[in-house]
Fold this protein.
Amino acid sequence: MYNELIRFDWAMKRLLRDKSNYVVLEGFLSTLLGEDLHISRFLESESNQTDKDDKFNRVDILAEDAQGRLLIIEVQNSRELYYFHRILYGVSKTISEYINLGNDYDKVRKVYSINIVYFDLGQGKDYVYHGKTVFRGLHDPNDILHLSVRQQEALMGKEAGDVFPEYYVLRVNDFDKVAKTPLDEWIQFLKTGEIETTATAKGLPEARERLRVASLSAADRQAYERDMEAFRYQRSVIKTGWIEGRAEGIKEGRAEGIKEGRTEGLKEGIEQGERKKQLEIACNLKRLGMPVDTIAQATHLSSEEIERLVP
């Protein structure tokens, strides 16, 4: 146990915020973005709500690099249907919160949104995706809108899209190859929690030395083991509940569909079965003392529904 490495998402919350450990996170970001990146400081990791109806912009890390760019790094373990919308909201909120009222638009920050997901997000054959804004000619798709010479000097970009946020999605569970590149070595670590002795990607040698479970204090080690056990249980409950709920819904839906003689009965039965299991999962997680917002994220129930549940 004590020769194992600490999970990267847990390390982000506890260890990588320490300036002495910046080198690990900088190595990951430099490898992903393909440039030598240095973190200047960490910023508030959860945006404030302007009113009770506003959404939380929950991120694991919000950092500023040496060039003043903002870096959102988030790990998502639980399945979330509207995760792409959440990415968009998080970036938009971050941009608006880091420009003061009355400032000129040239103070708008460049934002990189880096999302490490451990569930099936979208459809595709790759395991790392990069998204950015590109302005193409309507009549000539090969014609890309570029910045003027003066704009390039001021904004340190070439294309008009360089001003806009960029997005990275790392579908960690879809990595099933032998690590041959520095980025693959990082993806392998994110997926397995292990670093090959031959791995040389920037930041990984430091991670191998600094993210050992054995190096944690007794209190941190207990917290880590407790969090990992809760995570394993949560993942198991959610996965089992989703499978059972869907199976139960299909069974009820078929019966209802046969009775009603229409396909709407099948769809309604599936939805009812899945909701029933969501409520059961929420009760179990609430009994374990998990925060309401975490339960809401895992089950897609509203906070009000969860508050009314009796564990």
Confidence is low (pLDDT under 50) at residues 46-57.
